[in-house]
Amino acid sequence: MSEPRLRSVFFGTPDFAVPIAEATAAVTDLVAVVTQPDRPKGRGRELASPPVKELALARGLPVFQPAKLRDGVLAAELERLKPDVAVVAAYGRILPKDLLDLPRFGCVNVHGSILPKYRGAAPIQWAIASCEAETGVTMMRMDEGLDTGDMLAILTIPIGPDDTGGSMHDKLAVLGGEIIREELPRYLSGALKAVPQDHASATMAPILSREQGRLDFTLPARILDCRIRGFSPWPGAFTSLDGGLLKVIRAKAAESPEPAAAPGTVVSLRPLLIAASEGSALELVEVQPEGRRVMTAAELVAGRRIELGKRLGSEERGA
Length: 319
Fold this sequence. Notes:
By secondary structure, this protein is of the alpha/beta class. It has 9 helices and 15 strands.
């Protein structure tokens, strides 16, 4: 007769966490799910359940949605379930010590970066925006810090030239499920050795704000391309044209035909090139003018007056 599987609880909230929750259920006896409270969503502001809650309900699992974590109530509820391990992925809140210490194998987190790089709320987006060649997921034993726990396993994936924050989010969610399927049983059997992070090499990935999508043409086009892709779909990349907002949906780095042109200057119409620093230019491929549909750069040039020498974003700089 085979030994009974170890009992687990899962902490997670958004779509990213769903494949990881499914993997947890595949290799352990998942006995409960903890997720964020339902939130208003959409134009009607009706309450919507987190994706992880929907998964739990479909599986008939108990769901906890505490508004507070530090009052001891959740810890008491989970203690009755006697979990051997907790798996955490994109839960959205820092767990207090009583929850971290509750399972006998502790709390295992799946983080969307190659730690110690990109600790924090937006690791997927910042890895692309920082022009990294690869990213991945790290499975770690949680402590009371922010993504500072000892590492148990890492899976990596290259960042392609067309990858965006959205596309890499989906890839890493799948990879997160893989690392749990492959490595959580090894951890629970004692086959994995925890490795401390090099805290001196840590970088942060702070939560994104709308303003971080504003394009700064004093940067090299290579970096602008990375930021456009990293910050897609949110907050998105934008500049201004004739006093109105111009969203940049897709672009790519190129050499400038006028290396001495001021940053933000239109230096070519076909293709539509905008001067950046270090002799580079950003080729706009798809854009969305304020109040208009998404269109190609060629359609933008054909449909309105964009002459050579015009400066995008000049209203923002007071030029």
